[in-house]
Design a protein that fits this description.
The chain is built from five helices and no strands. It is mainly alpha-helical. It is elongated.
Length: 109
């Protein structure tokens, strides 16, 4: 767990160094705010920290982050995401992740 946390910190530091806008997307309006996935994201993730724009990370990064946060929830005495919540959240983050936004831009020219 410590190595994953360290990897996340390096990832964030690398984003700052290379100008990736990871923190510029904090508390930005969420895409599809009324969708089930956005509601899970807003209600469960906003409990402990500000929300990041889904486009701030790639889908693979989001999967890692969600897994880390599951452990953090347990550590803080909060109920972890249910399987259904996790699926809704990850589907939502995949649709709006950095890679999805980039692919859409490439298609639209």
């Amino acid at each position: 767990m410590k190595s994953l946390r360290l990897a996340w910190h390096w990832l964030l530091a690398g984003g700052a160094v290379f100008g990736v806008p990871l923190f510029g997307g904090c508390n930005a309006p969420l895409p599809e705010p009324e969708s089930p996935g956005a509601k899970v994201y807003a209600s469960r993730c906003n409990t402990c920290h500000r929300l990041y724009a889904p486009r701030a990370l790639t889908y693979e990064m989001w999967k890692m982050k969600v897994a880390l946060m599951q452990g953090e929830m347990v550590r803080r005495g909060l109920p972890p995401l249910t399987r259904d919540e996790r699926e809704l959240l990850l589907e939502y983050l995949q649709r709006h992740s950095q890679d999805a936004v980039q692919s859409l831009r490439e298609v639209n020219g």
